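Sequence in, structure out. First:
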Amino acid sequence: MTESNESTATADITALRERIVCLEWDQFQRTNNEGGRAACQGNWPVFHQMRLAQFLTWDRPLLESYASDLAEADRIGRNLVTEKYGRMMASTAPDEYERTIEPYIPRLSEGRIARQERVIATQVSWARDFRARYPRLGEAMRVLTTSEDTPAATSFETYLRGELGTYSDRTFALYEAMIAGRAARSANITEETLLHTVRLGGFADLNEAEAAQASV
């Protein structure tokens, strides 16, 4: 690939990531919360930083597939962000979930659920490892496991389960393959995502961000 072609490809994938964040933000703006609009729905800079950091760890095929999911959802009147938060309520508000959410969202097959749970277990272990090595940054993260959920606090595990449940079969298969690839080379996608997060926040690396937390 020539330098010009490489520059064009980089610009294209950057634009794709930004388009996905904007598509999610639009769906987030159309998500109704019990008790009214949530404060985070008005905080574009933080939303952009957090979501872009995640998508910076994804390759083009996965990004293209998820962008297609979001566009198709808009076309048919489905809101994947609303659905993600609804799926989380299976843990944080199970009675309400059973009554008002579960009957109205796509049901996942047992096979799909089992595959998701394997991915989730891998990512929870990575998040636990990250928190052990960067405890101050870890304190700023969500609580880790579903057993720690409360009506007011949703764990990393439950959030991930909700999000994975919204992916199309194609997107989930690509995501699953990405996680398997990271595991095969002993990488940690939580660490990668948090590195992008702190760099977008102006820090050089995780160590600098960790040290900064000590002075807060």
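Second:
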Amino acid sequence: MKIATFNVNGINTRLDSLLAWLREEEPDVACLQDLKAAHEQFPRKALADAGYGAIWHGQKAWNGVAILARGSDPVEIRRGLPGDPDDSQSRYIEAAVEGIVVACLYLPNGNPQPGPKFDYKLAWFDRLLERAKQLYASGQPVVLAGDFNVVPTDEDIYNPKSWRKDALLQPQSRERYQRLLAQGWIDSLRDVFGEERVYTFWDYFRQHWQRDAGLRIDHLLLNAQLAPRLSEAGVDRWVRDLERASDHAPTWIVLDP
């Protein structure tokens, strides 16, 4: 079973690239972030024609998350991260797919910091920690997949020096990511790649893609029930090289039956 996460950076703007990736790589589950589309603008028919059922949580112009399943319809469990009834940003959705609980998340960027956006990032992360603790203890196989907007360590970025003030590298962000792993979650890419450098994001500035000046901020975390099934992981870098590409590349794992 292949599970992927992909920040599409505008699902309708980059629909051709998304469909090309789905045709070529055939993930069984795809968690998408940053749809930048209201609920009614989601391209459900195009995805259905490509063989994917979908649930989504849209928001006009910003944010938005979706879970796609090849040849089936995801069964929605939860829409929105619990803990703040006043939070109107579309950043979290859960579904059951083929016996696995899939949580798709788009953690806030948090820039500029310090300030209200960074405060929101940390508060959202605290809520995620609570929900993740519940999911981990559920006894069900669970994957937390998405754009976490956290560079876990200096080994996950081409050069941390120029990013030290960025919200993605702040000690508070990294400390919360480590607290998440301390619950028992396995960082699947790091588990497979070991100390090898691997990136999932290259911004549009200063030829970062051409220079392979990347960051690893897209993660797939597995709980104790699912971690033993992990067999492969990778990044579909070719998608980042397409015309008008997202600044992220699809990141994936393969689970044994």
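Remark: The chain has a mean pLDDT of 97.
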